[in-house]
Write a structure and sequence with these properties.
Helices cover 36% and strands 19% of the residues. It contains 10 helices and 12 strands. The strands form 2 sheets. Strands 2-1-3-5-6-4 form a 6-stranded mixed sheet, with helices on both faces. Strands 9-8-7-10-11-12 form a 6-stranded parallel sheet, with helices on both faces. β1, α1 (22-32) and β2 (37-43) form a beta-alpha-beta unit. The protein binds 2'-monophosphoadenosine-5'-diphosphate. The site of 2'-monophosphoadenosine-5'-diphosphate has 15 residues, from α5. Residues 131-136, 155-157, 160, 182, 198-201 line the site of 2'-monophosphoadenosine-5'-diphosphate.
Length: 288
């Protein structure tokens, strides 16, 4: 679609942003759904976050993604923050709604959608989450909001897991919460129905690492999810496949968080997961 006087703009703010492939996804979705919108990236120095958000308002930019290191820093400058984003304590999506900036977090929602899209259910399930950092917070809060039965958070630094568990319990009292150290064996996995890695173990330079030892024997009906998407088949997912378990790849969360942002900005209901996946393959961003 040609740029004209009517064309709207959405953007990413982060530091750095040059590695981002969000422009591929959002510009593709705009073309696909006939939305007169272009998406571009702005490298914003940490000292310029406030000015950048004022710029979004002044220029009428319809929405923004927010990435490292600004996901927390943007929050004081927003007019409203969605309830779950406030609990997560980070914003990755801003909507400019008639001059008011509203903050959302679509990371955890993107993860939940990636599991549901594979045909698995989460309601009432016992879910084990490995890691208690920023990504874990987004995933755990949305799992609780979705109505899982129990969440066990495993982390090396146990206090971080305990802090997150207490905060989730306060906001979602129906969800049973537990915490254990990140030394997960066959015994700890007994009764777990969904296992999710949110640590960087298994990611590119650490691709030979897994949060679960090779010798661990999982329950036979366990669904294993990794939010690491490079490589596509992480060591954890290979272990799961060797045990004939169902798996959910990390790319699903990545694509679905972007789709959720696009839906917030445009009001369009997107049904184009496969097309976006093929686009990222064609761009060489991901490998099968
Ligand atoms: P992100 O935003 O990607 O979640 P983060 O907030 O730095 O990144 O969180 C990283 C998580 O992975 C943390 O739970 C961290 O454990 P600690 O809280 O104990 O530091 C975990 N993590 C990072 N490197 C790890 C490693 N080598 N082994 C096990 N856990 C690791």
């Amino acid at each position: 679609m040609e740029i004209s006087g009517h064309t709207k703009v959405a953007c990413l703010i982060g530091h750095p942003v040059s590695h981002s492939f969000s422009p591929y996804i959002h510009n593709f979705l705009a073309e696909e759904y006939g939305v007169d919108l272009k998406y571009t990236c702005f490298d914003v120095e940490p000292s310029k976050v406030k000015e950048a958000l004022e710029g979004i308002k002044a220029l009428g930019i319809i929405g923004s993604n927010v990435t490292i290191p600004h996901k927390i820093e943007v929050m004081p400058y927003l007019d409203e923050i969605d309830k779950n984003a406030a609990i997560i304590g980070a914003v990755n999506t801003i909507q400019n709604k008639e001059g008011k900036l509203i903050g959302y977090n679509t990371d955890g929602k993107g993860f939940v959608h990636s599991v549901l899209n594979e045909g698995y259910t989460l309601e009432g399930k016992h879910v084990m989450v490995l890691g208690a950092g920023g990504a874990s917070r987004a995933v755990v809060v949305e799992l609780a909001a979705h109505g899982v039965g129990k969440i066990t958070i495993c982390n090396n630094t146990l206090e971080k897991a305990e802090g997150l568990a207490a905060q989730v319990k306060e906001n979602f009292p129906n969800v049973e919460m537990a915490t254990i150290p990140l030394t997960v064996g066959s015994k700890e996995l007994a009764g777990v129905e969904v296992l999710i890695n949110t640590t960087p173990l298994g990611m590119s330079s650490r691709k030979d690492l897994s949060p679960i030892g090779d010798e661990v024997v999982p329950p036979t009906d366990l669904v294993v999810c990794d939010i690491v998407y490079t490589p596509h088949d992480t060591k954890l997912l290979k272990w799961a496949m060797q045990h004939d378990l169902k798996v959910v790849h990390g790319i699903g969360m990545l694509i679905n968080q972007a789709i959720a942002s696009f839906e917030i900005w445009t009001g369009v209901q997107v049904d184009a997961y496969e097309k976006v996946y093929e686009l990222l393959l064609a761009k060489g961003v991901i490998t099968r």
